[in-house]
Amino acid sequence: MVIQLPEKVKYIINSLQAAGYEAYAVGGCVRDCVLGREPEDWDITTSAGPEDVKKLFPRTVDTGIVHGTVTVMLQKDGFEVTTYRIDGEYEDSRHPKEVIFTADLEEDLRRRDFTINAMAYNETDGLVDIFDGIGDLKTGIIRCVGDAKERFTEDALRMLRAVRFSGQLGFSIEKSTKLAMKMLAHNLEYISAERIQAELVKLAVSPHPDYLRTAYETGLTAVILPELDAIMEMPQKNSQYRISVGEHTMRSMLVTSPDKIVRLTVLFHNFGKPFQRVADKEGKGEYGEIGRKIAKKVLNRLKFDNDTINKVTTLVKYFDYYIEETPKGVRSLASQIGRELFPLLLSVKKADAFTLGGYDKKEKLETLASLEALYEDILKKKECLSLKELAVSGQDLIEAGMQPGREMGDTLRRLLELVLESPECNTKDYLLTQI
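Now predict its structure.
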C-alpha cells in the first residue's frame, strides 16, 4: 500500500532517517489515508529522543517533552514528533505516572488504543500493521489493541472514544471491547468534563450521532449523561410518537444537519420530560422552562462555553412554542430569539416531526415549510426584527426631548412591537409621531 505523504511530513521523516533514526507517520493520519480521507493532523513517531529531535530542527516547541513529544515547526505548520515509548502505571485512569522511551516501534504501537489507530507508515518500509488494523477497517470494527480491559484501565476516555469512532466511521464495536466498556464504565468519573465534552461533540456532529445509543447500552451515559438514561426507556405520552422518548431523540439527531448547536439542542430538548407537569396548548407553560434549566445544568457541568450554552438553552426553551403561521407570528418569535437562531429552531422542529407517523408527520412538515417560506420573505423584504433595526434610535428620542432612562427603553420596545405588527411603520418620521 502506498500513502501520499505531504512534503513537510516527508521532510521530517527523511531528516530523522538521514540522522540514523527510525521515523513513521502514525495513528489517525494513517487510518484516514487508508480510508481515502483527508487527515486533519499528521503525527510522527520516531526512535529519536526529544533532545535529538530538537537538535535536528531549528524551530521546535516543547509541547509534551516529558512524554516524549516535540512539535516541529515548518513555516506556520506544526507537526508533533513523539519518541517511541512504553507507558508506565496509570494512576488516574487517564495519565501514566511515567513513560519509558524505547527503540522498538512495536512496543510503541502496542500501547495505542485501537487497532485502526496503531498503524505506521513511511516510504522506506511501507505500511506497518502489526495488529491487523487494515482487517478491522475492512470489516468495520473498533477493536482494542491487545487486552481491552488493560487499555480502558489505562485511559477511561478510550471507552467514549470507541463510541465516537464508531459514530464517525459507521463501525461496530468488537464484542470483547464492548464487554470491557460495560465492566469499566464507572472509571469515566475520573475523566475531566472538558475531555468528555470534546468527545461528545465529535460524536454529536458525526454521520451517526444516534450511536450515542451504544454509550447508553454500555453504561457510559449513566456516568457522564444520566439525563439521557432517564429518557431512554421513557414512553411517549403523545400517541403520535410510536417510540420511546430516548429513541425519538436518537432518530431526531440522525435527520438533522451536522451542526453542533442543532444536534445538541435535539439531544437535550427532551431531558426535561421526566420532570414536566403542566403546559398550555402553545407549550408556554413548564415544558420550555424546565427543559431550559436542565439543559443549562448539563451544559455547565460539561464545561461548555457561554455562547453554546446560551444558544442551546434558548432553542430548548422555545422548542415547544407554538408559532402562529402568519408573517406577524414569525416576526414576533424571530424577534425574541434572534435572526441566527430562528432557522435553527425550525430545523430542530423539523427533526422532531420526522419521527411522527402518517398524516401527523405530513401536516407538521407542511406547517414548518410554510413558516420557512414566511421567514425567507421577511428576510427578503428586510423587515425589522430587533431594536437595532428600528428606524429610530435612543439618540433620536433624546433629540426629540426624551430623557435617557427606563422610559426611553420602554418606548423603544413599544415601537418595536408596533413595527413587528406593521413593518411598513418602520420609518423615522412615523415612529417619532408615536412617542
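Residues 278-285 have pLDDT under 50 and may be disordered.
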